[in-house]
Amino acid sequence: MKNYNVDNFITEAMERHGAFFAFSDEQFKQQKKEGINYSSMGVGLICPTENADALAIELKNLSKQKRKLK
């Protein structure tokens, strides 16, 4: 279980849901895709609105797993 890296799963979940971090309007403009509505999920995390709920659930579950491993 020591090789179980939850951070890698978080990155994979973000990629799967089209999420990214943007800390300025310029960063957002560079990463956004035309025709997609985005929602801010806090702390700079941006996700397509249609995927935001699913990503939030997945990140919450991964966070619980990470706490169990500490």
Description:
- The chain has 70 residues and is α+β, with helices and mostly antiparallel strands.
- The chain has one domain.
- It is 57% helix and 13% strand.
- The chain contains 3 helices and 3 strands; from the N terminus they run αβαββα.
- Strand 2 (38-40) and strand 3 form a beta hairpin.
- It is elongated.
- The chain starts with 5 loop residues before the first helix and ends with a helix.
- The model has no long low-confidence stretch (mean pLDDT 90).
Question: Topology of this protein?
Answer:
Elements: H1 6-17, E1 20-21, H2 25-31, E2 38-40, E3 45-48, H3 49-69
Quaternary organization: single chain
Portion in helices: 55-70%
The count of β-strands is 3
Strand content: 5-15%
Number of helices: 3
Radius of gyration: 13 Å
Specify the biggest β-sheet.
3 strands, antiparallel
Structure characteristics:
70 residues; alpha+beta; 3 helices; 57% helix
Short description:
This protein is an alpha+beta fold and 70 residues long. It is 57% helix and 13% strand.
